[in-house]
Amino acid sequence: MHDLVIRGGTIVDGSGAEAAEGDVAIDGGTITSVGGKAGSGREEVDARGLVVTPGWVDIHTHYDGQVTWDPHLTPSGWHGVTTAVMGNCGVGFAPARPDRHDWLIGLMEGVEDIPGTALSEGIRWDWETFPEYLDALEKMPRSLDVATQVPHGAVRAYVMGDRGADNEIASADDIAQMAAIVADGVRAGALGFSTSRTRLHRAIDGREVPGTFANATEMMELGRAVKRGGYGVVEIASDLTPKQDEFAWMTALSRETGLPITYALVQNELQPGKWRELLDQTAQARAQGANITAQVGCRPVGMLLGLQSRVHPFVAHPSYMAIADKPLDERVRLMRDPALKARILAETTTITDRFRRRPMEQFDNMFALGDPPNYEPPPEQSIGRLAATAGREPNEYVYELLLQRGGREFLYFPSLNYADRNFDALDTMLRHPNTVLSLSDGGAHCGIICDASAPTFLLTHWVKGRTRGPRLTLEQAVHLQTRRTAEVYGLRDRGLLKAGLKADINVIDFDNMRLDPPVMAYDLPADGRRLLQRGSGYRATIVSGQVTWRDGEATGALPGRLVRGPQAA
């Protein structure tokens, strides 16, 4: 008799192969048979009329602090994620000298918009070195597997102190000390090393992430340290400017060490065609023997604008700023006063930075999100076009929208991956052989973004609901966030429904799968706020053969563990 049998489902095994009906049998946390008719099980899940897939492997999250207090890593745990990889973009909480805790929190708060008060109250700091951080994570029971990377920013600050935080050039001795830490971290079980090289990433004090301007010598030596530690991915958040210089050291490092290198790829409005150039550069690097892969998203990197959000068109108008700290209900009541409304509308934003002003005044790229939320709205549905059709000024039109639903309405501002006002660029990226699905940013950007729901969005929009372009097949979508993501990070024991592999599985009511509108919650430590987005359709999520979620509710089973290093099939 099997420990668990998933009976009669439509099996989408993660390989991209065509779906087929049958049973999945599990014993001792491992899949023992797929397809056909399995024998009886001590526990059975009736999957007739449902879809059975591997659990999602999300390789780009920022749960580095939350992982120390939340066993479920919500909201990712709600969306079928069974493995979450943290430590991305060069930010994290190890290594950490005792006098650098607040600084590391400020770095994470600035780059990833996670409330510093929540991190200060939630993190217990049972470590200093990176191996000690892994040991602390390993002690906590959880409902999904977690893995992490050694973050460049923390390493640089640990070795160089303020010189590292200020992005001074590292000496040979600095680099040697940093390389030793990286190698030790990989030996202890890190999946690799991450760095940020984009000017968009800044600490709460405005300084760029340590490592943003690190020269090729430093980057090559830290990459070699990953190799000395065993094996791992080098993950990069970069502007790739100039791209020739960045690709030169990336290509050289990967060819020398054999390590995989991944970088974040997005489309931006200032250079809407650069993403194609970067994919061409990636293909050239791979032709030269480098293992370079672009990490891409499945929906725009956007902001949710609203009175509960950190950003909206009037957030820096003086008359609004005077009431900004009042409770939401009181703000709404005051904003409905015609006199205050007139003052706010007559003012202009005090923000001078061009990039930060965009969501305040680019009304042709601002949309009502709706229910169900629409992340691929056509240009004619923009606030600018709707206001013009109604014969009204767009700022007044937005003002009234923000007051709807008691001030809980959200507007959608897709800042990246939407320069063409459609998903055509994303479609090409997702289907490209040199890309991997990523960039959910689970746990991060709590005040303006909630993209941890990306795994569910991939199915509800790209497979079921898309009307403005081609769709993905269910088999393609499942492959993109299971076997494909797992293989890039060397996790060959999961992401595929195959006998002998780890029993991480989702059982999905695909026909009734739905993504809910985002809501603002105040459920982090210290009543910290975060945007959350739930969905429906996950009948069961299984980790290591145990049902951890059933119909959106945690079962109490905590079979998840820390994943140390690559995993063989």
UniProtKB/TrEMBL annotation:
Any one Gene Ontology molecular-function term assigned to this protein's record: hydrolase activity, acting on carbon-nitrogen (but not peptide) bonds, in cyclic amides
UniProt xrefs under Gene3D superfamilies: Metal-dependent hydrolases (3.20.20.140), Urease, subunit C, domain 1 (2.30.40.10)
CDD domains linked: D-aminoacylase (cd01297)
Keywords: Hydrolase
Pfam families according to UniProt: Amidohydro_3
Domain annotation Amidohydrolase: ranges: 43-548
The keyword Hydrolase is assigned to this record: yes
GO cellular component, one term: cytosol
UniProt-listed PANTHER family: COLLAPSIN RESPONSE MEDIATOR PROTEIN, HYDRANTOINASE/DIHYDROPYRIMIDINASE FAMILY MEMBER
Protein name listed in UniProt: Amidohydrolase family protein
